Amino acid sequence: MNQQRIIIVGGGILGLATAYNLLMQGFIRVTVLEQATIDHDRGSSHGSSRLLRFEYGNDTLYTGMVNLSLERWKKLEQQTQRHLYTPTGVLVLGHENDNFARPGYDTVRKLGYAPERLTHAASAQRFPQFNTADYDFISYNMDAGMMHASTCLKVLRDCIIDMGGTIQERQRVTSIEHEDLLKPIRLLLANGDTIEADRVIVAAGPWVHRLLGKMELPVRLTHQYLLYFANLPASLYGVNACPAFIAGDLYGFPMHQITENGPSWFKAASHEFGAPADPDEPPHIDQQAIKQVVERLYHLIPALQQADLTQIEAFMYDVSIDEDFILDYMPNDKRIILGTGLSGHAFKFGILLGELVSSLVSEEEPVVPMTRFKLSRFAAHQNEHSHSIA
What positions does the domain FAD dependent oxidoreductase occupy (predicted)? Predict the structure, then answer.
């Protein structure tokens, strides 16, 4: 048993998955500090669903990581007897030369899956919900689906507690003191309390910049929106009839329950990065941005014009400048580990990312190479840019 005092700042998908993996590895003094509550509605992990897709263009690393992550989610489903994932398939609408649709199709096939290339006629017959006229590369991967995000968070929370871990809600960390490497790390809380730790994992999502003092991370915060449509026929838009979809920056899900015992709505959004966000400001709805996305969705899925846009949900991305994750030690202090730059495509990887972060704590060989997620890559990019200017 490892007696290190480990504090995880943030109870989103990365924080909970890291705590779960550490406890599975035999660490016993693991505490998650969450500034609000698990699955609170301002967090990037909150919500009914997240897309699990294998398509990442020709990026074999991420495609392979999806495969590893799905294996782990299914194992957790079996262990807990909770429903975490629903296969829906994913319809990808793209172009021959967009560096995403065809390379993604080819890469997924190399991994051993069997996506289908569809003609316009075949797509219209199988998936009449979609207007595919603007696209010249159409594929369908039956192995994709949707994660039930809120349920995943609650299952991880329950597992952590069952294994002897601690979750403290409404405990906002205001600063982390770690200047003296010979003394424990001190976390100062908003209520005036202080907690000492031997190791700290910062998994604070959009609030990461509040905790690192003068250290500047190459992570930006953006406003994003989820749109929910009601009053569509389940026979055409339910889980058994309609796939999840990706069409450029647009993506969405068939009708599914948005809350436990709640209504079933069709969910769609744009992945395009929105305006800069401040995590401590009230949610802001940009009506012009919403109008533009809705008009494009109407063109893609004509039946939405007769549906009701019943809810708009604002949330935030914390995204690195190269859109790869940051999973690394803090410079000059390996006792602190940073997990950030995750938003936009991290949830499906959550349980695997927690395993990777826990490998940084235990200093064991990770199941996936970590080079691409190191902070040092940004210094290298800056040097290259400086040379090119010279």
Answer: 5-359
- Tell me the per-residue pLDDT of 246-282, one tens digit each, with 9 for 90 and over: 999 999 999 999 988 889 999 999 999 999 999 999 8
Say yes or no to pLDDT of 381 above 60. no
Task: Please provide the DSSP assignment of 361-384 as one string.
Answer: HHTPPPSS--GGG-THHHHHHHHH
CB distance 27 to 40 below 8 Å: no
pLDDT at 387 over 70: no
What residue ranges do the domains of the chain occupy?
Answer: 1-48+148-218+321-390, 87-146+219-318
**Could you tell me the fold of the domain covering 1-48+148-218+321-390?**
FAD/NAD(P)-binding domain (3.50.50)
Residue type, 79: Q
CATH number for region 87-146+219-318: 3.30.9.10
Helical spans, DSSP H, in the chain:
13-25, 60-80, 101-110, 120-126, 149-162, 234-237, 287-300, 350-362, 376-389
Q: Average of pLDDT values for 208-214?
A: 89
